[in-house]
Amino acid sequence: MTDPARAAEIEEGLASSDPEDVYDAIIDIGKQHHRELVARVVPYLASPTGFLREAALRTLVFHLHLPEHEADAVRMLDLDPDEGAREAAAMGLSFFATKDAELLQHLVRVAINTSEQDTVRAAAFLSALDAAGLERGEFPKARALPDFEARADWGLLARVLSRAGHAVPPEVVDRVRR
User: Fold this and answer.
1) CB 42 within 8 A of CB 55
2) What is the pLDDT of residue 8?
3) Alpha helices in the chain (DSSP H)
4) How far apart are CA 120 and CA 85, in angstroms?
5) What is the pLDDT of residue 1?
6) Per residue in 58-105, pLDDT tens?
7) String of b and e for 107-127 (b: at least 16 CB within 10 Å)?
8) CA–CA dist 57, 89 (Å, integer)
9) How far apart are CA 90 and CA 124, in angstroms?
10) If exposure means fewest CB atoms within 10 Å of the residue's CB, which of 37, 72, 105, 112 is most exposed?
11) Can you give the three-state secondary structure of 12-60, one letter per residue?
12) How far apart are CA 145 and CA 122, in angstroms?
């Protein structure tokens, strides 16, 4: 770390008995790209506290793009009981899905899964768009929440997937036709 005062603040946050302070410290590690503190973040992937698992995912996968934690993010996207952790996993996986067509399709499957929480579906949807090569000017202008199913731009997802040479699942095509 270059700034000893900032390093001390992060260490103080990690040592705090207040989970919100710990959350902030974990997020700061990611936002400030302190790769030297990764070992301090990894244990929080298994925290009993959902928002601390979420913070660890945001730092390790979304901010730092660490490939050794991609599998953790996929597992947590599919199985974590905390909605925020699943949402963070979906967001972080966008980076890896740009080079992995199977992972991109996994994000699309999460987006079309009506039994999943809308916030997680929306994160997977946006991550799939990003990973498939969505251009800046194409970014959806309307909010997809609340009522994700009705407000998501399924036609945009189909176009971006197709343009990038990826399969467009029949469930997406059906949503475009509605």
Assistant:
1) no
2) 86
3) 4-15, 19-31, 38-41, 50-57, 70-79, 83-97, 101-112, 118-131, 148-151, 154-163, 170-177
4) 9
5) 46
6) 999 999 999 999 999 999 999 999 999 999 999 999 999 999 999 999
7) bbebbbeeebebbbbbbbbbb
8) 6
9) 5
10) 105
11) HHHHCCCHHHHHHHHHHHHHCCCHHHHHHHHHHHHCCCHHHHHHHHHHH
12) 8
Which tokens go with 25? 């410290």
Q: What pLDDT sits at residue 2?
A: 56
pLDDT tens per residue, range 123-155? 999 999 999 999 888 888 777 889 999 999 999
pTM of the model: 0.93
